[in-house]
Amino acid sequence: MSDHPTHLRIHQFAGLKPGPRLLVSAAVHGNEIAGVGAIERVMAMLDSGALTLRKGTLTFIPIVNPLAHRLQRREGERNLNRNLRVNPIPQDFEDRIANKFCPWLAASDVLLDLHSFNNPGPAFAMLGPRDNDGDLEPFRHQAAESALALAVGTDRIVEGWLSTYALGLKRRAEKAADGSRKMALQQDPHYGVGTTEYMRSQGGYCITLECGQHADPRGPEVAFQAILRTLVLLGMVAPGCVEPADPTRPVELLQLYEVVDREHADDRFEREWASFDAIAEGERIGTRADGTPVLAPFGGRIVFPNSRSEPGHEWFYLAKPSDRVLS
After folding, report:
1. pTM confidence score
2. CB 231 within 8 A of CB 54
3. 3-state secondary structure the chain
4. Considering only CA atoms, which of 116, 39, 104, 103 is closest in space to residue 74?
5. Contacts of 1 (CB under 8 A, 6+ apart)
6. Fewest beta carbons within 10 Å, which of 19, 189, 261, 315?
7. First-to-last CA distance in the chain?
């Protein structure tokens, strides 16, 4: 038996009437499994006739990274959700998966990518840039993507991933490389590109749905309802199979503006942070190994704090209220 999985499992339901091409993916990070069971549950409904596909093409990839999933950890040999692209000369398992996965993304119109996170916290959606003609992430589907982010039902939506990540990449590029492939990947300008960024580069639109903390028992239900709500939004299944998200609910919209790397193994947080804990301007978030304080430049929230991050990797993100209007 091979030490590594030798195939990627893909399921497709082709409606007899033309319509959107939706791809739903999970376990891009192997220990983020909320979406795996949710996908299996929706497929069972389609197979039994409890749910009817009215039009379009629905593709499910329940375990995008089977090696990381088998190992019950985030990565197999590297982070699949960074440097995602077709690799003519694959160097590792994730490169080989990307070579199979990227064409499925390119062949789709819409992506719902299901994830979870380390620290306790509520589910939230991440959407892409506003319509623009810039060099970093040109985009033309702001309205459709905003509608998708609202439809899945979370009370918090976050924007600004790639522009914020680019700031961190610029800082990393200024540091001396050690010649390793790992360092080369971290300093690659393409490093911030994952599933949704690749999808947008191919002309589609998408959201990342963070279904809560990895072990949160509510995560699979969040993922399940999001899949059904997406299908209803796109007209691919009839309304009534799921309770729609309350359109009048208050939604907190945040914009990422900073990513801070851990520089040394002795860098430490001031306290145990959870995603979206409130922070005040000037509040001490942590302390560097040499005693230098790490302070919040603005009031807002901390996102994805990771006390176990390796030096040279993201330690935490900062977000502030966004002026974007979702309708």
Report:
1. 0.92
2. no
3. CCCCCCCCCCEEEECCCCCCEEEEEECCCCCCCHHHHHHHHHHHHHHHCCCCCCCCEEEEECCCCHHHHHHCCCCCCCCCCCCCCCCCCCCCHHHHHHHHHHHHHHCCCEEEEEEEECCCCCCEEECCCCCECCCCCCECCHHHHHHHHHHCCCCEEEECHHHHHHHHHHHHHCCCCCCCHHHHHHHCCCCCCCHHHHHHHCCCEEEEEEEEECCCCCHHHHHHHHHHHHHHHCCCCCCCCCCCCCCCCCCEEEEEEEEEECCCCCCEECCCCCCCCEECCCCEEEECCCCCEEECCCCEEEECCCCCCCCCCEEEEEEEECCCCCC
4. 116
5. none
6. 189
7. 52
Contact 44, 13 (CB under 8 A): no
Tokens 């929230």 correspond to what residue? 301
Q: pLDDT 10s per residue in the chain (327 long)?
A: 458 999 999 999 999 999 999 999 999 999 999 999 999 999 999 999 999 999 999 999 999 999 999 999 999 999 999 999 999 999 999 999 999 999 999 999 999 999 999 888 899 999 999 999 998 899 999 999 999 999 999 999 999 988 887 777 777 766 655 555 555 555 565 677 999 999 999 999 999 999 999 999 999 999 999 999 999 999 999 999 999 999 899 999 999 999 999 999 999 999 999 889 999 999 999 999 999 999 999 999 999 899 999 898 889 999 999 999 887
- Reported residue count of the chain is 327
Q: Which two tokens mark 205?
A: 């639109």
> Which domains can be identified in the chain, with CATH numbers?
11-250 (3.40.630.10), 255-321 (2.40.50.630)
